[in-house]
Design brief:
Elements lengths: L6 E5 L3 H13 L3 E5 L2 H11 L3 E4 L8 H9 L2
Parallel strand pairs: 1-2, 1-3
Length: about 70
């Protein structure tokens, strides 16, 4: 049996929105990693190698656009 990574990184600075997304994804059998800003997102990305990133563009510290550029280089 082939194991498919189902880890999703949710990057959102609004805690309520982030929690709602997490609850929905976990109900659908996904593993969810959370980050509240671009710096946390970088650490989570390197630590967990998610198969998908749900990303807010307007983030503190490192913007979503900057994070996307950084992620492309990884």
């Amino acid at each position: 049996m082939i194991m498919i990574d189902q880890t999703i990184l949710v990057v959102e600075d609004d805690q309520m929105i982030r929690q709602l997304i997490k609850i929905y994804l976990e109900k659908n059998q996904f593993d969810v990693i959370e980050a509240a800003d671009g710096e946390e997102a970088k650490e989570a990305f390197l630590d967990h190698h998610p198969c998908l990133v749900i990303l807010d563009l307007m983030l503190p510290k490192v913007s979503g656009e900057e994070f996307c550029q950084w992620m492309k280089g990884q």
